[in-house]
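Contributing new records

If you add data, match the layout below exactly. Sequence lines come first and carry their own label; structure lines follow with theirs. Keep one chain per record. Anything else will be rejected by the validation script.
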Amino acid sequence: MKIWHISDTHGYHEWFKVPENIDVVVHSGDATNSKNSIKNMKKMKAFLDWFSKLPIEHKVFVPGNHDLSVEEGIFDKEDFLGAGIHLLHNSSVKIEGKLFWGSANCPMYGDWSFMLEKEDMPKIWAEIPREVDVLVTHTPPRNILDFTHNNDGSIDICGCPSLWSRVVELQPQLHLFGHIHNSGEIQNTGTKTIPYIKTVFSNGSCCVDRQFGKVFHPGNILYLK
């Protein structure tokens, strides 16, 4: 199974050159960018129109902290299914015999969508089924492609510690996420492996901090056995 993983497109989805021979496209959140419900709705509608028309048989979308119109229920699971897209939020779907499970929830940082207090995150990850093949979250796990700059220029590590613990326990074949973009010299977009676990990690963030509309990354191609 050949998977194209993208994330954090923030309204720039039409910039993509769509790869060929993809079985599943996964978007792990932040298709939009506005805190205004009406503007967010319009951006999400434009994204859905584009995403639904991709020449790829299977499509999965997990919302992100900027996808207000999904959190508010302006777009729901049925809207996505009607467009041929599986919307996952603390839920799963089987595609060609492989179990995909997704969650939009992120540790609290500012006033954004789908955010929970840090101490509440383990309850979400406890819902991940043990048989999961592809884990899709908006947030990264701690210390995995999750570095960024604070406003003062210092480095921050933004991933979720309890998610990391759960991934080590379950070791899905793939863990796909976004949320933390490339920032200056910090390169998060890409894939990573850890010697003592079998999971391949993918940060599919496409926009770059402070360079929205200028720099864009094509996402990651992964293979599922």
